[in-house]
Specification:
- Strands 5-3-2-1-4-6 form a six-stranded mixed beta sheet.
- It is elongated, with a radius of gyration of 19 Å.
- It is α+β, with helices and mostly antiparallel strands and about 210 residues long.
- The two termini are about 15 Å apart.
- The chain is about 30% helix and about 30% strand.
- A hairpin with a 6-residue loop joins strand 1 and strand 2.
- The protein has two domains: about 110 residues, OB fold (Dihydrolipoamide Acetyltransferase, E2P) (Beta Barrel); about 60 residues, no CATH class.
- The longest helix is centred in the N-terminal third of the chain and has 19 residues.
């Protein structure tokens, strides 16, 4: 790796971690996560349409009335939270508030009744085909694999995980970390790896 590029990556990583670890009552900071991690750790994963929003229903919050179009994952607790079709968020982005547009479809992987910038929230039309397939079921197959964040330093390969950087668009948008089982003289071995989907291969060829 080019020394200058390596140095810049670590400076960015340091600033990111510093912002995350430094407490502040007026700032929003979240560690980045791969979409698959959002799916696996969420209490619910839904496709929803925003019907309307209001500043009056919840004090110091913006309330969204939503219609759930599809449910890809839902715990019993999440089902109880979402049964009235309402979610809320902080009023400002500095407090991790999320501004959604009425009438648009979003995919949300969340916990609890409050939305934040730390959740996975993306307009459905802007998702890649791999993200859509992932949230509809493919990511579930990789939930036994851990996705480790790496900013370009020394990489330690582990059989139960994949290494990932938030700067790597190909792995983020076009791949998923799933176990691959293969036979060896010692028996069957499971190894987590980035699935080489056609869009992933195309991205690697022309990053």
């Amino acid at each position: 790796m080019n020394i200058l590029r390596y140095f810049c990556v670590w400076i960015i990583a340091f600033l990111w971690l510093f912002a995350f670890l430094t407490p502040s009552v007026n700032a929003c900071s979240c560690m980045p996560s791969h979409p698959q991690t959002h799916f696996c750790e969420a209490d619910y994963v839904i496709v929803m349409r925003v019907l309307r929003k209001s500043h009056r229903l919840v004090k110091d919050h913006l309330a969204y009335k939503i219609e759930i179009k599809k449910s890809y994952k839902m715990t019993d607790a999440a089902q109880n939270i979402l049964k009235h079709g309402r979610l809320s968020t902080a009023l400002s982005e500095s407090m991790c508030g999320v501004n959604l547009e009425v009438g648009k479809l979003y995919v949300v992987a969340g916990r609890g009744s409050k939305l934040s910038l730390c959740n996975y929230i993306k307009e459905y039309q802007k998702m890649t085909i791999i993200e859509r397939r992932g949230f509809s079921g493919a990511y579930r197959k990789g939930c036994k694999c851990k996705i480790n964040m790496n900013f370009g330093g020394r990489v330690v390969e582990k059989s139960d995980s994949c290494n990932w950087s938030p700067f790597k668009k190909c792995e983020t948008d076009f791949s998923l970390c799933v176990p691959l089982v293969y036979r060896t003289p010692e028996g069957l071995i499971s190894q987590c790896h980035w699935r080489k989907t056609p869009p992933y291969k195309a991205c690697l060829a022309d990053p």
